Amino acid sequence: MVMTSIDEATPAGRKAAGVALFHLLGVGYAAGTTRILPTLNLTIPAGRFVALIGHNGSGKSTLLSLLARQCRPSEGEILLDDRPMNSLGQRAFACRVGWLPQHPPLAATMTVAEVARFGRYPWRGPFARYRADDHQAIADALEQVGLAGMADRAMASLSGGERQRAWLAMLLAQEPSCLLLDEPTAALDLKHQIEVLQLLRRLREERNLTIVMAIHDIGMAARFADHMIALKDGRPVFDGSPDALLGPGVLSKIFDLPIGTIRPRADGPSVVYPL
Amino acid sequence: MTGTSQPAFRLALVALLLAAIGALATGAGWDPRITLDSMRLGLFDPPQSVFAAVLFHYATLPRIVVALASGAALGLAGAVMQQVLRNPLASPTTLGVSAGAQFALALAALSGSAASVLPRAMWSFVGALAAAGLVYGIGRRHRFDPARLALGGMAITLLLSSASATLVLFNEQRLAFLFLWGSGHLAQSDWSAATIILPSCILAFGALIAAARLIALLAIGDSVAGGVGVKTETARLVILLVAVAVTAIVVSQIGIVGFVGLAIPAIVRLCRPRSVAATLIASAGLGALALFAADALAQLLSQWSGKLVPAGAVTALFGAPILFALLSRARLASRPDTATAPAAGRFFSPGTRLFVALFIALVVLVTIALTVGRSGIAWTSLDPSRDGALFMARLPRVIGALFAGGAIALAGLLIQKIVGNDLASPELLGISNGAAAAIVFAALTLGVLSRAALLVYGFAGAIGAALIVLWFARRHRDQAAAILLAGIALGVFLDAMVRIALANASMEANALLTWMSGSTLLVSLPEALALGLLLAGATTAIILCRRPLALLALGDAVPAALGLKVRLTQTGALGLAAVLASAATMVIGPLSFVGLIAPHLARLVMARRLPEQVVATLFFGAIVMVGSDWIGRVAMVPWQVPGGLVAGLLGSLGFLALTCRRTAPVAGA
Q: Does the record bear Transmembrane in its keywords (chain B) (predicted)?
């Protein structure tokens, strides 16, 4: 089991971990009497493409919801840029951090462009007019997810993958510096999975975004992400590079299942398979 | 307190509470002449010489049996309907059964000797079945889509209630008994009702428990149920038929006790029983105890006050607050399915032509309403320059109807946006009932009848009701079904109070009934203009805030992630809706249902974006109300039918036509 040995709870330790976007200091979460996340200390590095992996119910979605301020931790504190996360106003936070739930609303009676337009709300609020750069951001977002030609199509008429990409367009139009995505590829076919993950990787490089993504496909995650965090029963059990994750025996321990990895070509992606 | 015992524990607690209330109230209201000895004598075959034994045998005992069996039947039927239709708002009342029975009874009573071929109870039974059949027909057209079926039930209920109200308004003497019957009165003088209700209740109970597995599958969804080999349509039809039939039998015998069928299954669901069979059994049991307790309380209250208090009203009076309290503590497991929108590729834009057409229609209608009248059989046209006095008398009335229609329509649109449900409206959330209850009580207890004083009371009542819904919505901002249910509970509660008051005050009742049906006769010009000013301000505010309001359609999580203060937006919008609704209720009464129908009409003409919807809704509200008011004025000369009542009739007809269309209109909820 590979864990970072730096003590994240002390300021010195935080500095040593490099530039961090989120710091979770003793964060726990309980719904009623059911404990979902035990007390955990974790750092999300800035400017990285982080994949959150783990079994069903390991706490990936809860962790993302906490980072997105969708729920408040029952204990502990989350720092964003070394400041308490709650010190930001709601719209200011939305300009900084964008979040997409695992199952976005149906929005059956809206068009693709209207959904994408919602992404500009944090910047303009209820009353300010949308300016040229807002419209440009919306058009760019639709272009990047490949829906530019379908801007006035009804959301209800789209396939699952197209709908997922429309919500992604909203998130891109939002232009946050951090994206929190809960299984963004779950509804997509293989081709679109690759396209979305390539897009995310390109965005990270071009706009220096931080991306935190919960995902089940470890092979895909290791191929596109550059930092992996594994949760097991709410506890981080791995925090490191994709190569280290694919090392002998690591995945087997995380998932309690014998798992093998091979790399057919030295410069190609790895294949993960249960033994 | 975790583990398996919890649901059973909670259910037992509720049952114990109801039983205790029932026993205490029965004890307190017990006729001292009936001793233990006379009870023993009267149990089976009372000797005619002992009066107390006869009383016990022919009045007390059957009344208890009727209360228990009817309560069980209604609770069971409501639970089954809610499961099979996957809709927490389904109940005998919302599916048209009760309204059908009431309308048939009113018709039978008016047609006199022609109707005497069948006993009264038989007529209401036929009416109940016929109304349920109509609702079923609508559901069939939409492949039993739960939301469509519920909409159809609502439409039929609205139509038949408006029709009954019209009949009552013009035949107050002969139909006064409908007030009492419509509130559920359980007094018995023999075993005839009990021998009908008890066996049918037992039969239905056995049949439905036997079908528990089927009901559970239908509750999960048609695709799953069909996938494991259930003939979903047939199964649903048969199960619903049993539930409707048993309800119809009960209603035909004891009148409308609507709240048990809606509230008891909801209370049971809040206790989260493990299985469908447990839900059905618990609903039947709690329903029996609830009606028993309510009837005992009703008898007690009648004794104390010296006035007749019907049991149905008491179920609402006590059931509504209990449901309300439970809802505010727990989460409701299921929510109504949203209507499935057809997958149209692109949206049709109504364009400016629609608004030009609506504007022309409104102008034409206002002109007609101002100038065209009727005296006897002859139509008259009015020239404002020659008969200025009559013109000035009509003007406030027409303008008042115009602005009130617009205001209630806009309030309806706002509330539908906030709650995220097309079925929501100020009339259904109890806001209009708040105004009505306050006015009726002011008139009956304080003797206030001046226009200005009634205005103030009505406004206070509406704002009070809106505040309660508002407080509730703040606690349950993600629970559309819970908010609706709470609103209906509040409305039913207030309506029950009004019914109790009116059942004992028939002299003043007619005047109040006229107001409650929405008579625009009393509006003054300054009042109408003030309403117009309020409406203009509200419309401007809504158009300015269109971005946050549009975001509300995305639910809770995503708007919050985009930086919207969801709670603040909802609260503000509901406050505005309450002000609009109460102002409009003052003019057109609580029964118009324009607030429900106008937003639907707007969606029907493809108004989808919020500004379009606002303008179209305003126009439709105004058109329907001005038109209804004019029809009410000329239709039955020399009598005037209140405009609100005509709007209710017309609106529910239109609503019915709407829900009958094969495809749902594609427009934003």
A: yes
